[in-house]
Automatic annotation (TrEMBL), chains A, B, C, D:
Organism the protein comes from: Paracoccus alkanivorans
Gene Ontology molecular function, alphabetical: argininosuccinate synthase activity; ATP binding
Domain Arginosuccinate synthase C-terminal: 181-399
A single GO BP: argininosuccinate metabolic process
Record family assignment: Belongs to the argininosuccinate synthase family. Type 1 subfamily.
Name of the protein this chain belongs to: Argininosuccinate synthase
Involved pathway(s): Amino-acid biosynthesis; L-arginine biosynthesis; L-arginine from L-ornithine and carbamoyl phosphate: step 2/3
Length: 409, 409, 409, 409
């Protein structure tokens, strides 16, 4: 097959499914396979992935294992949080935002190795295939993408296991049966979907939640924390400066302890169907609340309303996989421009599943007690101005009223 | 003064401030005063308002006391909730949505009585003056509006009390001192602002919250309820059909008990300044979560995303006082069109300040387990379609990639 | 092939290409073919299509020929013009708006005949396949769509002609060679693309324009016409009431004579590539100018700006083929709501390629000479109101100025 | 009057009206007056303004006369044209875009001189007062603004002339009577409004147009020109490089000669009323057409549609006077980001009032003949991809169709 890939970079987790893919690529296409395994904070050891790859015959120089946590948070998560991005009113985009970075590294590694293709383990029904591939095509228009789940005939659990056994791929005991749901995790969130979650009319079982304690089990006393922002990004917790990934890791621990960031959602996939997911975004949920809190005093109304207005579109672009698109970059330029003064500290109360802003302070504050006070304002504001303001705002409506009276005799 | 009002309809609460206004209108303008007192669910008896008005010399036929709760919820609150409207990411618009109805009745009563003016007790710094007046001008372009707080010289507490005493207006003991904050309430929410809340860097004192228990004092066991919607509006709780105002009253009680719906916010007023408010919207917060929940399965993606996109603008229009404007009505037509199938039942978990959707069911559901399942889907969806879908979605980005490669040699 | 169509409704023009498709459907699938030929104002006789279909063996009861001009203009073109819809700043959507109606009739005829499929002659590179098919799937989710150009191996002109000859399909002499460009026409417009137009750096040859005289050849004297609107739709020209299709036909003649409505455009197709087209929309161009003219005096600012804001999205939906989608219907509800008072008469000057509004009159006008006049306005407007209006509009910017001065010492 | 200005910078044209204002400021407030006269390309000599100011007693060091044409075009006009900004579908914002620059210089000169106020000659009914003052307040929150037309009692022509005579202000003969309409001009446009134009149902008299020949008098032969862009701005005409102001001046001459850029419009003022204006924007109209032409081949669809979507809001901000606002700057960041590759050359045909793009060329072109061709495309595009693309785009609509069939038995 002239179109067959010769050298493929595979997004490799070390788990059973991507090990099968690895082998399938070798047998189906006879191509050289390069593995790429990234630490995005999913909370798994990476060493086993190296050993597994070696065992499957990958040469050491073809095994790439990288800790991308700082880059992930600094260049993807934080820019997105500057926008207060939520998809469909609720979802913090934890899976969506990780995909472009993985594709970027896949393509870069392919270019280093002179590989002509990349491969991923996402299915043909989901969003992740779209995100991986659109990002890859944007970064290298000539790259081939192999998506085995859309191609092969290993369409049942039984056939997958047969293939694994026939190819000496070790199968962990707990992988013999089917998982009751499937999971994706990174430093920002854990998502669960499928199987036991497929009926949106049934409450998700408790055991689905893995990253946060049940609010009922959270401490009976609230905890207060202070998050400090500089130009829209969190840089310190309770006064202690931290790197990007460290801030998010710390917020995850606060959130986990207090049962914060759980979401049970039916969402609309880009491929056209609805799906039900359970998300846990402990640190991200706290961060969103805090970022809104600091914007409340540092962001002008015009800037804030413009951000609110374009946010759904920005979130949709990320959800649909268009991180590396001109329009996402244009919106990012708009958002980043707004964050110049989003600097200051927010105090939050964490309690039983909720993170609430209770106070905020900033040298860059636009809040003017002199203007708003019910007390004597020493001339900061002339209440009589309001009469003219109202009359001219109402003028066009008065003209409508006059017109309507005139034509309805 | 030829421009002086001859007959004025006053929005009259029966409290000290509007009683002073009543007297001031009589003395300043020598005009006839008609009082209008509405029950919007603020939780106060209206009989005292009648007695107080009579005592201040208002003739019985000039005293209007009305229970507007059903109209308020049915024609204002529920249409707004169809839009999932929140202002600046957080505020459920509890005060904003009540003002147009009050203005509507003020203008209608003025027309019945041949009055040439209306009057209200809102200050010159806030949003409410704008909302009252824009609505009034839209409904009757010729109406005069008297806003005593922008006109008179009773600019200190001392002078107000002196005026009251000089005019035999009774002063309740607890009104001698100044309230530590000011309150507005109706069936949808209670808002508190001013005085002790003026420093947004200070946490709001516990005693500010009046309508909900502290989450820490809420039951240690979660409670589950089911809300049934028809065409976007809630019509039953736990299977029991209820009128509009009754649904909201019942949800308020659930919310109160579980400490749900508290918000501490710095917001941007239409008149140009930032202000800090504490809001309690117990039933509304539950309703918003439930409405989003039922939309998740009954609303198409295109419809839902369009609603998300125009929502901030719709909320801003209500916040700014433009309920009776063509553009609000146009947006309402768009929103209402989307709600035809928003019918079904949502199950929520209420616990310690949080209301979370845990399940939803609808005959109108667009969720297709056949399409989304990880299991065999019997041909509902051909995964190979995704390849073409992705490639054509990526095509323009590939062309950009090619262009960029071409011009950067 | 179990998936093969049994009975197919074909969008049939009577031309060579769709005659080949007809035969190919019969031979490839052995299926019964029903033809549908619509008069959308493309300016061709339909009788030959009937004869041709009969000659190709279609039974008389399977031949559908319909005059859809009134429905086309009334239910598709005019609703779209209420929105002042233009795609990418220029294109009046003449082809896009015709496709949904054709699909609607194809699906309805399929249902009448118990057919399981429809077929069209659009290629795999263009927008029309998308428009035909999305509309069809929306109206009948179970329908099959056959798009021969994406399936067959008749991929060159030579092979097409061989197939035609082998199947006794008559070939008109002027169809032996390849056309220098391809054309689509209906009552709203004529579009030309391909071949001689493929280089956007080359000016389109004069002979491409077929529907309008060259502006240089248009009359040396301008002509003035008056168009009367009711609720946003044109109902009379120069005082003479006309049906929808008759109005558009008359405007086309005015436009043709004065060389109005030519457009040379490079546009972005939904499938991801850019294409260059030449459009002639004589009547539509006049209509758009006139509709804007009548809206200028009858539409409120809030309504008009909201329409302007959502227009690009509405146009994109139509361009991309989503006429029968919830979001298009929601936007239509918004637009139609705005047109209640768009009633009145516009006077236009037509001259050498340009249609310009020169005067407008309406009983529903919101224009108030009393307010705008430089002369004495008898108190309609108090100029002092403007000071307060400006000061409160500027307040937030002043607070920014103060903040910036404070933090930059 | 403690609030009275001590030193005022006046926007001074040298004409009768601003000379009266100058004198009135001196007599009313007894303040020192500094004059500022700018050449924005309005086509008037500035020397007379100096002499007039001197004659009215202004000290030489208090007279500022500046040629701002390059700054005006480079920093205001061109950034705006990058957005293809038009207000209400038609107006190229020629007056709006000049005001912020004048305010900027007024404020800067005030700061140099330690002046506490600025003054302008705009009336209390128009947009210009808003634009001048919002810009001034944004740049210097402490500045006072004197708007004599809102303050004084010189409310009739007779009284103005009396004041002029009483104060030895020379009155040109042609200023004795009232002008039949009022004019504003700069390098971008000339606007005319008032008096003879106040009835929008009457065609504007020919003599109103001053800057362009009547299309009927324009050359009978079309003229072709080529405009070259770099990053969204025009830099050369017919291959000849020019400065910003020189390009616009040259385009104005082309436009003037061919009668291009006339507009008769009823627009919505920010202060709430409709007004009728006649605009002539010869060079700007050509520039807008050309900029759209070059964007057609160099701008990606996602980028272009996002620009189209936010354009009305951007234009409204400029129209309303919010050039110096965070949201305008945010939108500018978005727009500028899009223009990186908007580089190339557009060929236009100018004839009898129309400027039409007929060809475009760019090294940065995204147009791919290989993809779009009807001929063999050598595998650039696989038409079969379209089937999957369409099916997944239609999937949600199919699910709606299924739902609707299910619930309507």
């Amino acid at each position: 097959m002239s179109d067959a890939p010769k050298k493929v970079v595979l997004a490799y987790s070390g788990g059973l499914d991507t090990s099968i893919i690895l082998k399938w690529l070798q047998t189906e296409y006879g191509c050289e396979v390069i593995t790429f395994t990234a630490d995005l904070g999913q909370g798994e050891e990476l060493d086993p992935a190296r050993k597994k790859a070696e065992m499957l015959g990958i040469r050491p120089e073809n095994i790439h294992i990288e800790d991308l946590r700082e880059e992930f948070v600094r260049d993807f998560v934080f820019p997105m949080f500057r926008a207060n991005a939520v998809y469909e009113g609720c979802y913090l985009l934890g899976t969506s935002i990780a995909r472009p970075l993985i594709s970027k590294r896949l393509v870069e590694i392919a270019q280093e190795h002179g590989a002509d293709a990349i491969a991923h383990g996402a299915t043909g029904k989901g969003n992740d295939q779209v995100r991986f591939e659109i990002a890859a095509y944007a970064l290298d228009p000539a790259i081939k993408v192999i998506a085995p789940w859309r191609e092969w005939d290993l369409t049942s659990r039984t056939r997958l296991l047969e293939f694994a056994e026939a190819n000496q791929i070790p199968i962990a005991k707990d992988k013999r049966g089917e998982a009751p749901f499937s999971v994706d995790a990174n430093l920002l969130h854990t998502s669960s979907e499928g199987k036991v979650l497929e009926d949106p009319g049934e409450e998700a079982p408790d055991y689905v939640y893995q990253r946060t304690v049940h609010p009922e089990d959270a401490p009976d006393q609230p905890e207060f924390i202070e998050i400090t922002f500089e130009k829209g990004d969190p840089v310190a917790i309770n006064g202690e400066a931290m790197s990007a990934a460290t801030v998010l890791t710390a917020l995850n621990e606060y959130g986990r302890r207090h049962g914060i960031g759980r979401l049970d959602l039916v969402e609309n996939r880009f491929v056209g169907m609805k799906s039900r997911g359970v998300y846990e975004t402990p640190g991200g949920t706290i961060l969103l609340e805090a970022h809104r809190g600091i914007e409340q005093i540092t962001l002008d109304r015009g800037a804030g309303h413009l951000k609110d207005q374009i946010m759904p579109q920005y979130a949709e672009l990320i959800y649909n996989g268009f991180w590396f698109s001109p329009e996402r970059e244009m919106l990012q330029a708009l958002i980043d421009k707004s964050q110049e003064h989003v600097t200051g500290t927010v105090r939050l109360k964490l309690y039983k599943g909720l993170a609430r802003t209770v106070a905020r302070h900033s040298e860059h504050s636009l809040y003017s007690e002199a203007h708003v006070t019910f007390e004597d304002d020493a001339g900061a504001y002339d209440q009589k101005d309001a009469a003219g303001f109202i009359r001219l705002n109402a003028l066009r409506l008065k003209l409508i009223g006059n017109r309507n009276a005139r034509i309805k005799p």
